[in-house]
């Protein structure tokens, strides 16, 4: 099975960098002194954590987080990994995150495509309590207090569901046979849905999703929106052939906290991203530039844990991304690969870093911290 795409490694960092208001300054971008850049970057990441806590503290996020705990303790992490894949994103994988337990096995009671499911406090799992041909509904306790009182006071509903059949392949390493295995799957996945979340009868989240997919499940058109006061989320993707553009906006009221404008060039089979260019901003930070995704991924697979300086030089010719501070209207540095040497295991591999104007740098995983959403290119042993 393929490893997590590099888009995850780079842009998940930026997703959690900050939720601070941004001002629009069209003056020429200036480059600030390295020591100042380091301080401002760390100030921004501290602000990120505070604002992220604010977002996650809203009733809707608290309720959805508790739902993830009821379904699977690892559900949130698996969903994040799936949503940020840079290759094809088919909803079959998203749906499987509801169906698989922490060991990757099927849950005792699967959540199907349709039906009304209610949390059973005695069995500690969801059970089908009513069939439906129009909606998928989950009834569950909104939090610890409701759970203690055995009250299913939260209702998550997907309705106006439309499905289509997709065919996709996955390649994974069979450790028993010591060989790569490619398998083909077919599955019905949703292309249209309206969603709502209610707690104690009060609506706290609503949204809609519509997509058009290729035969293997790759989105060729997406329109999605979500409202969870005081936040609004909108995302779109469209294009034709192998050339697509995608836009995202996440706002608190009228203030945009996060957004991106990306041009995407897919491979001829639409399964992988060849090139990605544009900008991704999580105020007050913005990454802007170009990544030759296919060439980077191909080289990464060849390198393994025996990277050389030559590999690093090559990878950096395929990556041209600057990191800006929008409030200061300044360039903090360049996002580049550096050679990480693990002397304990005699391994070396590429690791992303922010390189400042004097050539000094900081590892991104150190800036984000081990408890952040950013994951290192190679997991720590």
How many runs of DSSP E, i.e. beta strands? 17
Q: What fraction of the residues are assigned to beta strands by DSSP?
A: 35-45%
Q: What characteristic shape results from the CA principal axes?
A: globular
User: Main β-sheet, in a few words?
Assistant: 17 strands, mixed
Mean pLDDT: 79
Outline the structure in words:
The chain has 381 residues and is of the alpha+beta class. 25% of the residues lie in helices and 43% in strands. It contains nine helices and 17 strands. It has a 17-stranded mixed β-sheet that branches. Helix 4 runs antiparallel to helix 5 (91-99). It is globular and about 65 Å long. The two termini are 20 Å apart.
Q: Could you provide a short overview of the structure?
A:
By secondary structure, the chain is of the alpha+beta class. The protein is 25% helix and 43% strand.
Show the helix and strand layout.
Elements: H1 6-15, E1 30-31, H2 34-56, H3 59-71, H4 75-83, H5 91-99, E2 115-120, E3 125-130, E4 135-140, H6 144-148, E5 154-174, E6 179-199, E7 202-213, E8 219-228, E9 231-240, E10 243-252, E11 255-266, E12 273-282, E13 285-291, H7 293-303, H8 309-317, E14 319-325, E15 330-342, E16 347-355, E17 361-363, H9 364-368
Helix pairs in contact: 4-5
Features:
alpha+beta; 17-stranded mixed β-sheet; single chain; 25% helix; 381 residues
């Amino acid at each position: 099975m393929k490893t997590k795409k590099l888009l995850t490694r780079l842009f998940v960092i930026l997703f959690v960098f900050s939720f601070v208001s941004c001002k629009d300054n069209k003056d020429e971008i200036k480059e600030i002194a390295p020591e100042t850049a380091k301080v401002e970057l760390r100030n921004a990441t501290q602000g990120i954590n505070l604002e992220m806590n604010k977002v996650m503290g809203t009733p809707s996020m608290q309720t959805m987080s508790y739902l993830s705990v009821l379904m699977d303790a690892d559900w949130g992490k698996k969903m994040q990994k799936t949503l940020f894949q840079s290759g094809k994103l088919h909803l079959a994988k998203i749906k499987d995150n509801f169906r698989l337990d922490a060991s990757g096995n099927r849950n005792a009671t699967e959540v199907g495509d349709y039906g009304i499911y209610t949390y059973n406090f005695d069995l500690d799992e969801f059970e089908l309590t009513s069939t439906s041909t129009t909606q998928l509904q989950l009834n569950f306790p909104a939090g610890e207090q409701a759970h203690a009182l055995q009250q299913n006071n939260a209702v998550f509903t997907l309705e106006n569901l439309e499905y289509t059949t997709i065919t996709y392949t996955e390649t994974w390493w069979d450790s028993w046979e010591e060989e790569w295995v490619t398998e083909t799957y077919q599955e019905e996945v949703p292309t249209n849905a309206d969603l709502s979340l209610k707690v104690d009868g009060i609506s706290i989240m609503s949204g809609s999703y519509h997509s058009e997919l290729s035969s293997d499940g790759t989105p060729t058109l997406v329109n999605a929106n979500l409202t969870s006061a005081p936040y609004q989320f909108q995302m779109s993707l469209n294009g034709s052939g192998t050339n697509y553009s995608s836009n995202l906006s996440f706002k608190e009221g009228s203030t945009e906290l996060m957004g991106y404008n990306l041009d995407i060039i897919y491979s001829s089979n639409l399964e992988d991203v060849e090139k990605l260019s544009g900008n991704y901003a999580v105020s007050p930070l913005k990454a802007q530039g170009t990544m030759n995704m296919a060439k980077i991924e191909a080289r990464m697979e060849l390198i393994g844990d025996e990277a050389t300086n030559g590999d690093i030089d090559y990878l950096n010719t395929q990556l041209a991304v600057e990191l800006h501070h929008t409030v200061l209207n300044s360039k903090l540095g360049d996002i580049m690969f550096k050679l990480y040497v693990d002397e304990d295991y005699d391994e070396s591999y590429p690791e992303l870093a922010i390189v400042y104007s004097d050539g000094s740098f900081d590892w991104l995983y150190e800036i984000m911290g081990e408890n952040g959403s950013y994951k290192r290119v190679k997991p720590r042993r």
